[in-house]
Amino acid sequence: MVQKRNLLFFCTKGKQTEDFQEVARKIRSRTNDIVPLVFTTRAAVRPLLAAAWLIQRPTVSIEFDGRRYRPRTLRGARFIHDRFGAKTEQSRRLEANTLPLPQWTEIAPGTSLDPAEWGPYVVVKPSMGGRGAFVWIHKTGRIRYRPPAEYPEDHPGRRGPMVAQRFIYTGPWPVSYRVLTYFGVPIMAIRCEGRHDLPSLDGADGIRRAGGGLSIVATAKGCKISLDCQSDILDLARRAHAAFPTIPSLGIDIVREAGTGKLYLIEVNPGGHSWMFTSDAGVQMQFDFGLDFYGKFGALDLIADRSVEIAREYAR
C-alpha cells in the first residue's frame, strides 16, 4: 500500500494562489503518494483539523503566508518565509556559508571609513529597507553616523542601522541580476540595466563627475530588463539557499564586477515578497518588455518536481 503524504501550500491571496493551484494539478497527475492542497484563508483550513486522513498522514507545509492562515495544530514539517531580521543578519548568514558579499559594515557612532581600504565611494543603504529605496552612493571619507531621530518619519533609518557597502562597479550603467529560486532551484532569472539617459560612469571613481548622492540601483524607473540564464549566476543563486534552508523561495540579487567578472550577492529577500510571476510589478515588467517568466525554465514544472521531493523527504 502506498504511503500517502500531505503537501500543504499556504499562499498569499491574489499572488501565488493560481500558480500553486496549477502546481497541485501537475503533482496529482504525476504521483499517487502526494496529496497537494492549496490554502489562502484560515477558514478553509479549519474543517481539516477534524479530518482523520489529514491528522494521520505525514504532512509538510510550504508557507508563503502561513503566519496568517495556518492553524498551529496542524502536524508536520514547516517551511516558512521569514525576513530573519535586518539585512545585517541576512549578510552574516551568507558570510557564514562562505558566499561572496561586498565588504560591508554597520554605520555606528564613531564609524570612519578609509578610502584606501574601501575605495573612493561606498553604497549606503538601510538595514530595514526594501525595493531599492533609500540606496545611494557617497564619498567614503564623508560617511558618518546619524542618529535615528534625525531621519525623516518615513525613512527606514529610524527603524534600524544604516549600512555601508563597498561599491561594485558593474559598467558604464548599473547592471544587476535577479534570480528567483524555489528550494535552491532557479525558476526565473532576469538582467536589469540602468537607464541610459543618465551620465555614464567610466570606472569606480567616475562618480565624481556625477556628484555624490547618485542612485546606482539598476532597477530604477527607466531601466531595461531581459531574461537571463548565465550559468555562473544561476550556480551562485543555488548556493545561496544553503544559508536559508527553511525558506521556500528567495529573490536573489547578484552583481558582476566589471573587469574582474567576479560575482557578489547583494540581497536574498527571504521574506516571501519576491514572487514576480504574479506580483503587480512582475506582471507589468513582463508586459513592458515582452517577457515570459514562466517559459524560460518551465517554472511550474520545476516547482512541482521540487515540491514532490520536499514532501517525500520532510513530511512528518
Radius of gyration: 22 Å
The number of strands is: 13
Please state the oligomeric state of the protein chains shown: single chain
Largest beta sheet: strand ordering: 11-10-9-12-13
Terminal residue distance: 18 Å
As for the CATH topology of the largest domain, it is: D-amino Acid Aminotransferase, Chain A, domain 1
Number of domains: 2
Structural class by secondary-structure content? alpha+beta
Percentage of β-strand residues: 15-25%
Looking at CATH, the homologous superfamily of the largest domain is: ATP-grasp fold, B domain
Order of helices and strands: EHEHHEHEHEHEEEEEHEHEEHH
Cα shape: elongated
CATH architecture of the largest domain: 2-Layer Sandwich
Q: What is the tally of helical segments?
A: 10
The overall average pLDDT, rounded, is: 87
Low-confidence runs: 209-213
Helix content: 25-40%
What is the CATH domain class of the largest domain? Alpha Beta
Biggest sheet overview: 5 strands, antiparallel
Describe it.
This protein has 316 residues and is α+β, with helices and mostly antiparallel strands. The protein has 2 domains: 5-81 and 299-314, Rossmann fold (3-Layer(aba) Sandwich), CATH 3.40.50; 87-271, D-amino Acid Aminotransferase, Chain A, domain 1. Helix content is 25%, strand content 23%. It is built from 10 helices and 13 strands. α1 (17-30) packs across α10. The radius of gyration is 22 Å and the shape is elongated.
